[in-house]
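Posted in: Protein Modeling Q&A

I'm a second-year student putting together a small comparison for a lab meeting, and my supervisor asked me to include a predicted structure for DUF429 domain-containing protein. I've never done this before, so apologies if this is the wrong subforum. The sequence is pasted below exactly as I got it from our records. If anyone can share the structure token output, I'd also love a short note on what stands out.
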Amino acid sequence: MRVAGVDGCKGGWVAVIVAPDGTTSARRLGSLAELFDAPSPPEMIAPDLVAIDMPIGLPETVEAKGRAPERLVRPLLGGRQSSVFSMPSRAAVYASVDPAVPEEARYRHACAVARATSTPPRAVAKQAFHIFPKIIEIDTLLRARPALQARLFECHPEVSFWALNGQVPLDVAKKVKNAPHAPGLALRRALLEAAGFAPAILSAATARALKVGADDLIDAAAAAWTAGRLARGAATSFPTPPERDALGLPIAIWA
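Accepted answer (user: helix_wrangler)
Welcome! Here is the predicted structure, written out as tokens:
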């Protein structure tokens, strides 16, 4: 199978693609649909299976600490638990782009809807709010093209690195105070290289050429590793089996 890992980046997405012969490439995408509608040449062929670092499946109401996948994976991650955001309800996510609400008021609006659809009432984290447009992009794509549900799977890079590291959480962050943290990036590159990724594809130079963050590129490679496990039938879902939202979309983090 041709597999890919995808992570969000400023202005779009970054994908690390692994061909059936092991050849690896990286692309920047303006939209997620571009990955599945890729034309020739061969290196642009659409992947058969994709793991993406972004939530898929949105609940109508939310319990404490988010969806089931988020509650299940946090205890695995030690000091990296804060990297797993709690997703609010579908209504709260879509409230963030409500055209009837002025843009400057949409965060407060999303928080109000989130409180009304969670037990106990909980607002929206700012970091989560900023990725809502990408969550909506995935949600819209999967609803418009249901066949992609068998090809697109949610993952989380820190859970992927936990699995890559022998189910031991990493004790060094890849970002500190929202800035790249060299020791954390180096640790993750070393794990990916040990798993067969070429150093060049993970390098800061490649990230600069694609105009993406070094951490985004590394996270996309971790997602590609998880996609490979999915293709081989070796991945684990949290929960097992995946839950489904009211529209039938899966709710699970894979590693």
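A couple of things worth pointing out for your meeting: The CA atoms of residues 163 and 255 lie 7 Å apart. The chain has a mean pLDDT of 95.
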